[in-house]
Amino acid sequence: MSGERANDPAEHLFAEGKKYDWKQDKSPAAASLARANFQQAALMEHRGAMRALAHMIYDGRGGPQDKKQALLLLWSAFRCGDQEALEELGDLLASYAEQLTIPSEAKQAAAISETIGQLDAALSKVLGYMGRLVQAKS
Hints:
mainly alpha
């Protein structure tokens, strides 16, 4: 952790959440503590915490399950600049689509998941190209 990040309260909360997160399968209390720490860091727009919290909310670990809220949280992380969140959103959306009972909703969610996959692949190409331009310039 760099000195700048070491003093970041959101980074500290995220690190604390990760400490409890790996113990959560053995302890419901650890899951609750991980979720609470991730929640606080996510409120400070810590992207890693937003992603971790989204997965906990999606699965109902450490608190109530809310799949729609989890999907929206991953979307928020992406909108804050976290490209990894986009891939995770596509994966969770595909899983969500399989669980929907209304065929038209399931079909739409699956189609959006596929579109997200295409968008993620395209963004990866753009980022790679732009990275090479930056290197060539330096």
